[in-house]
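Handoff note, outgoing to incoming analyst
You'll be picking up this chain. Sequence as last confirmed:
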Amino acid sequence: MKEKSKPRSISRRKFLKDLGTGVAGSAVIIKSIHASPQGEKPRAAAGHQKNRVPLSLTVNGKTVEVQVESQTTLAELLRNHLQLAGTKVVCNHGECGACTVLMNGKAVYSCHILALDAAGSEIVTVEGLLTGEKLHPIQEAFVEHDGLQCGFCTPGQIMSAQALLLENPHPTRDEVLVGMSGNLCRCAAYPNIIKSVLAAAEAK
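Most recent structure output, in case you need it:
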């Protein structure tokens, strides 16, 4: 039988020596990057433009025609291409609900949907609920009943509430609990979120 190889030990001197080599190498790379002529934009990777696919959809009542890469998510399209930063990306795994938007009237996690899968769809973001500078009744209810604390999850909470009230204009408290269960609030403002949704239902 072959003798088992012993684990190799690394001395402090060798570790610092290797670390120094890595830092020096990094410095060379960084220096070469900064050596580029001022104002010169970095060149796109080969084939970058070729990977883009035309996409047409409706966002907040307006027809949008863009070109996106096949792996672009709906959240990335909204935030990075259309500058609709109200849609938040927190977990980026379709678990927390902060990125919730409406797609054809239904609440969806925009971080978990490819932009190309939304082709031809009607998308509504939290910005789309506004009428000029006037808040939507759901937005007003969240403000009035303190349904937000840090505010980061609030856009997703509001969009889920809108989807719920579109389907069920006068939900019970238990129905609100179920309808909002896909949205997490790290500040634990759940009691006030429920009050906000019920108040918005009454205001309709």
